[in-house]
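Lab notebook: predicted structure, single chain.

Context: the supervisor wants predicted structures on file for every construct in the current expression panel, including those that have not yet been purified. This is the next one on the list. No modifications to the sequence; it matches the entry in the shared construct table.
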Amino acid sequence: MAAPWARRGSKILVVDDDPVVQRVLNAEFRKHNWELLFAGDAIAAIAVARREHPDLIVLDVGLPAGDAFVVLERLKSMPALSGIPVIVISGTDSAENRSRALAGGAIAFFEKNADMTELVATVIDALAS
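Prediction complete. Output recorded below exactly as produced.
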């Protein structure tokens, strides 16, 4: 059962250019009554974040028009957006990408084929704090 705060419709911005990943995350996250927003590239990610002020962002490393590290840097430089928790996902579990994401301010790093239960638990923890 979803926690009471999850029923309030927490907004999650999913930034990924892969429609399969978008569909998988959409299906999983909607089970928790979260409102989902989507962006397919770095420019759209910043625009949607500025307009919608999501409660959390799930951000793919490899994006058109910039990568996750550019998006993280821009988000962290904007006072209105700097406090939004960001979880970075990647098609590969590169130690360098993991290190850069966490150093850039991400709260977690997951490989895309990681256990969905762990990703959801991280989202729940981030939204609860």
